[in-house]
Write a structure and sequence with these properties.
Layout lengths: L5 H15 L7 E2 L1 H8 L3 H13 L3 E4 L3 E4 L4 H20 L7 H20 L2 H19 L2 H25 L2 H16 L3 H13 L6
Antiparallel strand pairs: 1-3, 2-3
């Protein structure tokens, strides 16, 4: 069994901390703090931070520390435009690919989201929201779309969670997911695409 490099373990752990919002409102940490929290040496943590810097998750300020990078309003809206292009195109290609099992799996995701509403579990809800959309792309079979969407979702994860809390948008998101699924069950792709378009547009930030 191949041993996982420590830099990869550090990368995964730091990214998880970023996506959970563990660094608080100040969005700041340091190499010394990460060494202590992860119980690792500095070398794998530095390598992980360089990788996260390249991906746009952090900004490394010499002799000061690590700043967690949140997307700007323009970047967020650009991400949503890319989501719109990828997801609506993918849905148009579904045709009769969706099976009864797929419908059941999507309904299960929605049921899990309803439980998150009751528990005010914003992090799990945001992950389930991603699962719902990724599921539909996966059915379409375009691996590049799937990976691109996964990257976009990671960059938007903190902002999605924040918006769910601020706007109490969980109930609306569920309603829109249900409406999209109903259109798909009816075999009305045109209606499903229109509802998906509206759903994604609702996530954009009005300047």
């Amino acid at each position: 069994m191949k041993k996982v490099p420590l830099s990869e373990i550090a990368y995964v752990k730091i990214k998880e901390k970023i996506m959970r919002g563990d660094f608080g409102e100040e969005n700041y940490t340091s190499q010394n703090q990460l060494v202590e929290e992860l119980n690792m040496s500095r070398t794998p943590i530095v390598a992980a931070l360089q990788r996260l810097k390249q991906e746009g998750f952090v900004k490394i300020i010499s002799n000061q520390g690590i700043v967690i990078q949140e997307p700007t309003i323009n970047e967020i809206n650009d991400f949503f435009d890319m989501r719109l292009a990828i997801e609506t195109f993918s849905m148009k290609q579904l045709g009769d690919l969706l099976t009864e099992e797929d419908f059941e799996n999507l309904e299960e995701i929605i049921q899990d989201q309803l439980e998150c509403v009751e528990n005010k579990d914003y992090l799990s809800f945001a992950q389930l929201d991603a699962d719902y959309h990724q599921y539909l792309i996966q059915v379409g079979g375009n691996g590049l779309f799937f990976q691109t969407m996964a990257n976009i979702r990671e960059r938007l994860f903190l902002k999605t969670t924040y918006n769910l809390k601020k706007r109490q948008g969980m109930a609306l998101a569920i309603e829109e997911h249900v409406n999209i699924l109903e259109a798909l069950k009816q075999g009305n792709l045109e209606l499903a695409v229109a509802r998906l378009d509206e759903h994604i547009q609702n996530g954009k930030i009005i300047k």
